[in-house]
Amino acid sequence: MANVTVYNMEGKEVGTIELDDAVFGVEVNEHLVHMAVVQHLANKRQGTQKAKTRSEVSGGGRKPWKQKGTGHARQGSTRAPQWKGGGVVFAPVPRDYSFKINKKEKRAALKSALTSKVQGGNLIVVDELKLDEIKTKKFVAVMNNLKVQKGLVVIAENDANVVLSARNVEDVDTAVANMINVYDIMKAKTVVLTKDAVAKIEEVYA
Hints:
- The chain has a six-stranded mixed β-sheet with strand order 2-1-3-6-4-5, with helices on both faces.
- Helices cover 34% and strands 16% of the residues.
- Helix 5 (160-166) links the parallel strand 4 and strand 5.
- The mean pLDDT is 93.
- By secondary structure, it is an alpha/beta fold.
- It has helices at residues 21-24, 30-44, 103-119, 136-145, 160-166, 182-187, 195-205; strands spanning 2-7, 13-19, 123-126, 151-155, 172-176, 190-194.
């Protein structure tokens, strides 16, 4: 098991914690991590683009002029693609970009992401993260004490004071232990876990 130093909110060492190898010490599978990130980004896409084809554009029901004898090229409708106000050829339509990956693959990807942060020395454990009020300045002070930039802060339970204090801090995201995802972990330079969050993650994913 990996031993990681535990810090307090002032950034001082207060002990160590043993991380479960079943979650934080697995063999890193880069392919599954990549697949999980791609899935997350694909599932976020709205896919709401839309343009009308010639069958959907209003008007154009009458042949604009007779077939022969006018000197013009033959035309069947004023809503054909070559006309102003006509339909679009191969127009984009709303589509769903999302796809699924297996539960076991998703869990393995999450464990690989957490393990990669431990191996890279980019995982910090704090004994607790509690704020007595919603105050961005206090949260920023804690992040500065821990020397965290572009981080992901994971807490065990939803704490409004922490979440709302962090909401306006650039490059810092918060997440609840049972709602973390591979994309957020890999996007963050440093992952900050409370001791309770570590216990919760090990309970859910071990």
